[in-house]
User: Which sequence fits this backbone?
């Protein structure tokens, strides 16, 4: 069995962003040489997420609005976590979007349904964070 590890690094300009990282994950898969197996893509920070959905700007705007309704950034005093910090909302947003995705690898390709793409979701941006890509298989 083969194993391949790659780290992807991001530093967003905004507090909340969604970045399509599918092509970066596909490049890591090509490097791995794995034709049949599994690909784990994992956010390595507790205020960021990796998720699968459609790459449609209206949907992403809806995500942002929905998240802000469920866990608004302000007032920062509303969160007990915010003692010397202002990212209590980002921790909650990450819980909603999840930590990682697992995608089957078939014939050397990510085995997606229609319209599926892999996204990095940043909820407390403007600093450097990483995503782990771990591919195993034959």
Assistant:
């Amino acid at each position: 069995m083969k194993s391949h590890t790659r780290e992807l690094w991001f530093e967003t300009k905004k507090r909340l962003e969604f970045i399509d990282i599918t092509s970066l994950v596909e490049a890591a898969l090509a490097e791995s040489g794995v034709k049949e197996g599994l690909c784990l893509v994992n956010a390595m920070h507790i205020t960021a997420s990796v998720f699968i959905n459609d790459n449609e700007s209206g949907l992403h705007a809806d995500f942002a609005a929905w998240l802000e309704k469920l866990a608004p950034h302000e007032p920062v005093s509303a969160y007990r976590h915010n003692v010397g910090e202002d990212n209590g909302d980002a921790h909650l947003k990450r819980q909603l979007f999840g930590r990682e995705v697992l995608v089957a690898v078939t014939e050397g390709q990510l085995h997606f349904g229609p319209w599926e793409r892999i996204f990095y979701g940043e909820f407390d941006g403007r600093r450097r964070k990483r995503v782990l890509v771990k591919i195993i298989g034959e």
